[in-house]
Amino acid sequence: MARHVAASPQLPTVSASTIGRWLKSERIRPWRYHTWQHIQNPETFLQRARPVLQWYERARRLLQEGIWLVCVDEKTSIQAREAEQAPRPANAGHVMDLSPRYHRRGMRHLLAGLSVADGYVSGQCSTRKRFVDFRAFLEQVILPEAQRRNVQRVILIMDNGPTHAPKQLAQWLEEQASALDGQLSIQVAWLPVNASWLDQIEMWCAHVATQTPATQPFSEYQRLGAGHLGFHCLLQPGCQIHQMVLHR
């Protein structure tokens, strides 16, 4: 900033230390920032967002009425990295040392669903992120859990990601309606475009990513952990996770 002022002949000369004092006195930190979303079409946004937010508010009551609200999404490209050398432990006056070089020990995608009423998270790992993998997750994890809960309707909250393949999903919904024979109905609620931040499972995935200790070694191809959250994903296709991690 001082260089910019010095390059403008119409401005008085100001030192960098003076600018620093001004910024400090006004508590301005120009190197820090927050991102924000601009709603392009408020009317269309509210048409999709309003019912979802109202369901969030009534999630527990809906579950008591036999309607299960589930947010589903995927956490992609989860990598297991093994450092070439073991970490050197911290000691008095010195932090832990980590090797900057590592070996890649595999990558998987996590398909997950969060029960809005109680924070129960179910997941399944996959080697790829296609609609067929998403469909398998719904059939092998979400629907059996819905039947275990003895609900009559499942509402799936989803963003507009390509994995969810709306055209193929419509056909799958018709197939399930016939197979379930009225015992269980499935409803899909699409979030507004560019509004995946309204998806609660997205918040959970972000929380897991930020809370995973960067110092945790992954010495086996078969394992990928997420530290003190107790989240554990075996890097085997079809492995399932059932973990209560959120509390309302």
Describe the protein's architecture and organization.
By secondary structure, the protein is α/β, with parallel strands linked by helices. The protein contains 7 helices and 8 strands. Residues 219-241 and 243-248 have low confidence and may be disordered.
Q: Can you tell me the overall shape?
A: extended
Strand numbers in spatial order across the main sheet: 5-4-1-2-3-8
Strand content: 15-25%
Mean of all residue-level pLDDT scores:
81
The end-to-end distance, rounded to whole angstroms, is: 46 Å
**What string gives the helices and strands in order?**
HHHHEEEHEHEHEEE
Largest sheet report: 6 strands, mixed
Number of helices: 7
Helical residues, percent: 25-40%
Which runs of at least 5 residues are low in confidence (pLDDT < 50)? 219-241, 243-248
Number of strands: 8
Helix/strand structural class: alpha/beta
Rg is: 24 Å
Fold blueprint:
Blueprint: H1 2-6, H2 16-25, H3 42-57, H4 59-64, E1 67-83, E2 102-115, E3 120-126, H5 131-149, E4 153-158, H6 166-180, E5 185-190, H7 200-211, E6 223-225, E7 232-234, E8 240-244
Compact overview of the structure:
The chain has seven helices and eight strands. With 248 residues, it is of the alpha/beta class. The chain is extended.
